[in-house]
Amino acid sequence: MDTRTGLPVVGMVGGGQLARMTHQAAISLGQSLRVLAESPDDSAALVIGDVRIGSHTDLAALREFAKDCDAVTFDHEHVPTEHIAALEGEGVRIYPGSAALLFAQDKGRMRARLAELGAPVPRWRPVNDTADIAAFAAETGWPVIAKATRGGYDGKGVWVLSSPDEAQRLVDTGTPLIVEEKVPLRRELAALVARSPFGQVAAYPVVETVQRDGICVEVLAPAPGLSDERAVAAQQLAIDLAHALGVVGLLAVELFETDTGIVVNELAMRPHNSGHWSIEGARTSQFEQHLRAVLDYPMGSTALTAPAVVMANVLGGASGGMSIDERLHHLFAADPGARVHFYGKQVRPGRKIGHVTVLGDDMTEVRARAARAARWLQEGK
Amino acid sequence: MDTRTGLPVVGMVGGGQLARMTHQAAISLGQSLRVLAESPDDSAALVIGDVRIGSHTDLAALREFAKDCDAVTFDHEHVPTEHIAALEGEGVRIYPGSAALLFAQDKGRMRARLAELGAPVPRWRPVNDTADIAAFAAETGWPVIAKATRGGYDGKGVWVLSSPDEAQRLVDTGTPLIVEEKVPLRRELAALVARSPFGQVAAYPVVETVQRDGICVEVLAPAPGLSDERAVAAQQLAIDLAHALGVVGLLAVELFETDTGIVVNELAMRPHNSGHWSIEGARTSQFEQHLRAVLDYPMGSTALTAPAVVMANVLGGASGGMSIDERLHHLFAADPGARVHFYGKQVRPGRKIGHVTVLGDDMTEVRARAARAARWLQEGK
């Protein structure tokens, strides 16, 4: 507890944009987020007073950081599982716990556990050598999807393999892998829930996520044209997984929608890009919800604030031309209702430097506005 | 400009809750607010990285603070006018400027200027001695309202005088005063606008403000039952005053509604308690709007996000009983849709420690929910 305010202190390991936006939510709750950042120039470190510099792989640094925190949580999934377990052993309230987070950190463990739980998953297999991939492809047909078991994000750590030769070259890199069938998907969805230690769960409306080159570029809330039945099934699946895995905090379940139903693609246990729309688009943002969950507050309303909400990521465009500040002027002049979120990051081509959210009554119109707003910020035109 | 981000730096003099909430808005715009606070325990200083400690009455401290800021603005109106003028003379972009802010700082100057502009104001008179008050009351009848020309807020610096004896006792304190008629008001309203250096103005929906013991306890947006004609007149008045006084940033015009129209009570030139509802209740919050104005960005949409929005202030309750954190748990359980804003302040009876906002379709219901939420946080029941 912060004795100056009588309110709790949450520590977040990692100083990226998720911590930055969580801090905005913490301020409303009377708190100040404490972050463990790699550098004072990290996205969150630029805007937070209570910044500690250190590495998320350094157990001593984590231990020191956790002191006097009412709860510790994460901006990313890269803290070694054994460090989390060690802190748990010392009585630190750290969420999600090591037993849950493991399934977001290790795709092999995740797939095995989901299959055990009877959750819908693509056909998959652990990979020890090229022969495993070839045998799997003999059943499903080429191409197949290979995934690094750890550390992938934004399309990194995922490969489409079309032949035994390609499989051989990937296996030769020594990356621990699993292999999955290439699911004949209609589109991607995401179901976001938050769960508290008490066991209360709040589910957000299911959204459609639109990817380009493996990177999420747009999120549509609610997912257009999704049947109530399938939406409820996706929410229920996420709720069941949150309970079964013992998640505390947010759980984002990335889903493929096929002609016959939904299958789980990935799990994330933190605020997630597929939930950024909730800052303005839901009564309680995912960032506040995550704080409420890890502090065991009752969950907030997940109701939509408008019939159609679209979030578009802003990627760094080519350098040169208009500055980012000039682009912002033009966007504000073009669309006074667009909501902008910049992450305080240097512009690099392809890097997520922010997002925009547009709300309205008509999904087609809202989507066009959001795409135009993101384009203005990316390309200055 | 912050060279790490390519985005501007705004400095705010004063570390209160207005700076705290402005920082939340700054984060979305890719910025970090810089504050000049009296103490590291000030409301805003608790949550901001870029805090400088110093006094707003120390010209050298202000000058040092303003270095490398793209614009400087205020959390309160207590910076000496001559210091602002000195910084302007040195080329600092400081908003609102001294020529405008004077009319928010000095009620005598404000009344004189508004009268000159033909704005509707209560009958009033400058006060040099008790005879001035008595002569004025002879025209209007007792009681009359005396106001300190400088430094009043939240009911402080305002006195209801019922007799020459009471007037004498007040005049004897040496406080510089003006005297005004007691306006037969139906209710109080507020019109909030923002104006940029370019001269663009954005007007928010006119709200009703409900006072108790001179402190604003509730704000209803939009003002219930206000005719379109009178709402537009109030907005136009605020726009005209913003232009005439050369305001840059926010201008809040506190109004009395009488049987025959509106009259101006007070002016404030900063984010204002009557605009806190806009964080969730308007597409662009007053805090972001103020930043956009002082940076000469195009203004954001002021559209309501729900048909009925109510903000209720949370005052410190009696000590003892439930802690503030326990109260928050109970409120969240009772109303999952209530939006809470705590200012990081020690609870002291009567002190504004936060506010809650509730949104919905029906003003009566929304108002009841907001009042109940504020009562939970104040009284724990």
UniProtKB/TrEMBL annotation, chains A, B:
Binding site for ATP: K107, K147, E180, E181, K182, V183, E188, N265, E266
Involved pathway(s): Purine metabolism; IMP biosynthesis via de novo pathway; 5-amino-1-(5-phospho-D-ribosyl)imidazole-4-carboxylate from 5-amino-1-(5-phospho-D-ribosyl)imidazole (N5-CAIR route): step 1/2
GO cellular component, one term: cytosol
The ATP-grasp domain, residue ranges: 111-295
Record bears the keyword Ligase: yes
Lineage: superkingdom: Bacteria
Record's catalysed reaction(s): 5-amino-1-(5-phospho-beta-D-ribosyl)imidazole + hydrogencarbonate + ATP = 5-carboxyamino-1-(5-phospho-D-ribosyl)imidazole + ADP + phosphate + 2 H(+)
Family note: Belongs to the PurK/PurT family.
Function per UniProt: Catalyzes the ATP-dependent conversion of 5-aminoimidazole ribonucleotide (AIR) and HCO(3)(-) to N5-carboxyaminoimidazole ribonucleotide (N5-CAIR). Catalyzes the ATP-dependent conversion of 5-aminoimidazole ribonucleotide (AIR) and HCO(3)- to N5-carboxyaminoimidazole ribonucleotide (N5-CAIR).
Protein name as annotated: N5-carboxyaminoimidazole ribonucleotide synthase
Gene it is expressed from: purK
